[in-house]
Design brief:
alpha+beta; five-stranded antiparallel beta sheet; 1 helix
Length: about 150
Amino acid sequence: MNRKVLFFIVFIICLSGFSLWAFSRGNAQLVTDKSSSKRAGDFILHVRVERADKGIKVYRSIQYVGKEPIEIQHNTPLIAVSLAYKNHDYTGSPVTKVLKEGGSYHPQDAAIIKQTKKGSYNLYCKAKFTVEGEKVVIDHTEKLIFE
């Protein structure tokens, strides 16, 4: 009888240890918050990545540094982001916005991306809009590490 009880206790301890290990593997967090910028002509793409519950928050904006006010058109989102995949979807009716010197434009809330596995991943950011009939595309890739 003592062997059965001892076996049961060891089994429960092993099962608990395995569950704890599996649970901790599934809750990877971003190692460090990151901020970056990329300039293309009179525009600067700003990206900030922060830890969030079970993933990350990606804040993104476009800053206009030209002298004269300009009008841009874009679909939604202005700046698409995805983790590990380069696919970006732009939907919705065109949006028109006038930008002035030094003005930042961030029409979307922070993107929340769920990430539960440890490892190194690329965050792909792509701003796509039109200025005076010319397409402007700003691509940026940021390497993120989750532990």
